[in-house]
Amino acid sequence: GSGDGQGQILQRFPEKDWEDNPFPQGIELFCQPSGWQLFPERNPPTFFVAVLTDINSERHYCACFTFWEAVESPQPQSHARNGEGEEEEEEEASSLVQPAQLFAPKSLVLVSRLDHAEVFRNSLGLIYTIYVDGLSVSLENVIGNLLTCTIPITGGAQ
Fold first, then answer.
1. Is the separation of the CB atoms in 94 and 40 below 8 Å?
2. Which site from 6, 57, 63, 142 is most exposed, i.e. has the minimal number of CB atoms within 10 Å?
3. What's the CA gap between 129 and 127, in Å, rounded?
C-alpha cells in the first residue's frame, strides 16, 4: 500500500526487565524517526544516538544501528504491453517476471544510562558484522561477552 510499516521487536536482551532499569516502551518508534518504509535499493548502514528521559528525569541513551535487508515485494513489477502481435511471447515473458526486490530496515539498539556513543557504535558494529557474516556464534554469547566485565575491588589486585 503506502509503503509505511510498523516496527516490531524481534529479540531483546535481557528478555525480562531489570527492576531498576525497565525496557523503554515504544523504542521501535525511535529507531526509524522517518517511519518504517521499504526502499527499492539497499541503503548504507546508519548510526545515531537518541536520548530518552523517563518519568524520574533519568536519561537513557538509545544507540541505533540500522541496516537494510532484502525482502520480496508482494506485488510483481508491471510491464507495459504494446498490444500488437507477439501476444503469446509477451504473455509467457510476463508470467516469468520476478517480484521487485525491496529492502526493509532492521535496527540493532543498545540502551544505556551511560553516554559512550563510540563504544555503542563499536559494539553494535561488531554485532552487525557477526550477523551479516553468518558466523556460528550465538548473539546471546556475543552480547553477554560485551556486557560482562570484571571491576577490581578498590585496593585489590589489578
1. no
2. 57
3. 5
For residue 109 the three cell numbers come to 539498539
Residue 147: which H helix or E strand, with range?
helix 139-147
What is the rounded CA–CA span in Å between residue 44 and residue 67? 7
Angle at 135 between CA 134 and CA 139, to 5 degrees: 95
Q: What is the pLDDT of residue 137?
A: 83
How many angstroms separate the CA atoms of 126 and 142, rounded?
9
Residue given cell 532484502 in the structure block: 70
Confidence (pTM): 0.71
Owner of C-alpha cell 589489578: 158
